[in-house]
Each structure stands twice: as structure tokens, then as C-alpha cells.
Write a structure and sequence with these properties.
alpha/beta; Rossmann fold; 8 strands
């Protein structure tokens, strides 16, 4: 998985993302006209969130018009905050959520400083993994609390409704940590080709499920499953033993298949995963 081995999808040309998402909603051909209009009307603001370890740069997105909506936190993959994740946040906001997408590496660098790094190259991999190692478990937990507190302070957020959290690649474990660290707020947690959800270590993310109150959606990449076929069974048993509502499914895409612009992006399977995310949030967040 992405935390401990090289994945071809991470060698995608960053220029692809910039070209594809510089045009905004026009890049998402799968959207209906109504969805495209809703995305175009989403408000997006660059914000700064104070955390226990400093100040995190992030983007805040919410629907047009007056009203309040459930909050959602998005954890990016190991390539960090970039146009593709801003557009994911915009699409989600257009569906009726207030979305925060932070720079997970704020302790180490701004997005512009790592925009050209390639995880498939030794130097880029070393730098990005260094950023990830600067995020200790306690730091991630504190970040999660700060991000949810920031969201709850926004006038657009309906604090009476549960919040959601979703993560990609390295964001998978961060999603599990968030669901445990802010258990009273998180009602739904979703991961997409999450890396290292099950490990033999005492801090394995799957062991945190017992501390959470969320329903889960775990979308597994087929090549990740081929490398560790037992992980999905451990997850299923964990959820079942704790009577925690969950769906764990292997998708017909390789690690990174949900991220547009990656070398293995699979639109059909990405849209299927998005549809499952939409169902989860509608059911759990209201």
C-alpha cells in the first residue's frame, strides 16, 4: 500500500491534474447538468486552521444559498492538497455538505512546495514520506479535533447532524483515527484504497473502530487485496464483532483508481465508489 511501497499510479503527471481541474466542473464529464450547475455555485475559500502544532492551510467549500449542512472532512492521499482534491471537495459540497480539505503536511510544507514531487522517484518519495512521518498519531488526533472544531464554528454547518470523514491512500488510516478521536461527531467514515488499515502493530487503525460510533465504507483496491487478502476479512470481523455498520468491498481498480489524473484512474469504478459514498452520507448524515 502507499505507505510502504511504490505504486505506479503515483507517477501521474501533475500537469494532467492542473489541466483537467483548472477548468473546474467541465472536467467531470460524468456530471449531470444540474450537478454541474450546483458545483459551479459552490463557495470555496482558502482558510487557515489553528492546531496544537501550528497553522494548517486548507480549503473550505459549501453550497450556494442560505442554510446549514452537515460537515465533512477529507484526508488526501500522499500527494497532498492539490486541484483534484479541491474538485472532489467541490463536488461533495454541491451535494449539500460543508467540506474541509486540509493540507495534511502543513507541519512540513505548503502545497506549492510539493506540487511537483513524484512519489515514484526516490527523491520525491523520500520527501513525501518525511512529511508523513512528521504526522505522529497524537498529532493526527489533535488535527482531527481542530478540523472538526473549525467546521463546527462555521455558520453554514448544521451541528445537530453527525459529520463525515473520508480518506484516500494514506488518508485511510487518518480517517479511522478521526472517527475514534472525534467519536461524538463522526457518524460516517469512508476510505478509498486506504493504505495500512490492518497492521500487526498496537496502533493499527482497525483497532480504533472500537472507540468510534461511525458507520463505515471501506473500498479496497484489487491489487492491495491481492497483496494482503486477509486484511478485508480482519476488517469485516472487526466491524461484525463490534456490531458496527460497515461495507467492505474490493473494487475492480488498482490503488489510486478513484483519483482523477492518476495513471490507474478508473472512471466507472470511481463513480461506483462515489455512489456508495453518497448513499452512506445520505443515510448517516441526513
Amino acid at each position: 500500500m502507499c505507505d510502504d511501497e511504490i505504486n505506479p499510479w503515483l507517477q501521474a503527471d501533475p500537469a494532467i491534474s492542473r489541466r483537467a481541474f483548472g477548468a473546474g466542473v467541465g472536467a467531470l464529464a460524468v456530471l449531470s447538468a444540474a450537478e454541474a450547475r450546483a458545483m459551479a455555485e459552490v463557495t470555496a475559500k482558502d482558510v487557515v486552521v489553528k492546531t496544537a502544532d501550528g497553522e494548517a492551510d486548507a480549503v473550505l467549500l459549501y453550497p450556494a444559498g442560505k442554510g446549514t449542512w452537515p460537515a465533512v472532512l477529507i484526508w488526501t492521499d500522499i500527494l497532498g492538497l492539490r486541484p483534484v482534491f479541491r474538485e472532489m471537495g467541490r463536488r461533495l459540497a454541491a451535494q449539500g455538505y460543508v467540506v474541509l480539505v486540509p493540507n495534511p503536511f502543513y507541519r512540513s510544507a505548503k502545497p506549492a512546495e510539493y506540487a511537483g514531487l513524484n512519489f515514484g522517484e526516490p527523491s520525491g518519495r523520500q520527501t513525501l514520506m518525511g512529511y508523513r512521518m512528521a504526522m505522529p498519531d497524537a498529532g493526527v488526533d489533535n488535527d482531527a479535533k481542530a478540523y472538526l472544531a473549525f467546521l463546527d464554528a462555521q455558520p453554514q454547518v448544521d451541528r445537530k447532524k453527525p459529520a463525515g470523514v473520508q480518506g484516500y491512500c494514506m488518508g485511510g488510516p487518518l480517517t479511522f483515527r478521526t472517527a475514534a478521536a472525534v467519536a461524538d461527531r463522526i457518524g460516517a467514515a469512508a476510505t478509498f484504497h486506504g493504505g495500512g488499515l490492518v497492521t500487526p502493530q498496537p496502533n493499527s487503525p482497525h483497532l480504533l473502530v472500537a472507540k468510534s460510533k461511525a458507520s463505515y465504507l471501506v473500498c479496497v483496491a484489487r491489487n492491495d487485496d491481492a497483496r494482503a487478502p486477509g486484511d478485508k476479512e480482519v476488517l469485516k470481523k472487526t466491524f461484525a464483532d463490534l456490531n458496527r455498520p460497515a461495507t467492505v468491498e474490493v473494487y475492480g481498480g488498482d490503488h489510486g483508481w478513484t483519483v482523477r489524473g492518476s495513471a490507474v484512474y478508473n472512471e466507472a469504478e470511481a463513480e461506483r465508489a462515489w455512489a456508495e459514498l453518497t448513499k452512506l452520507y445520505k443515510a448517516r448524515l441526513g
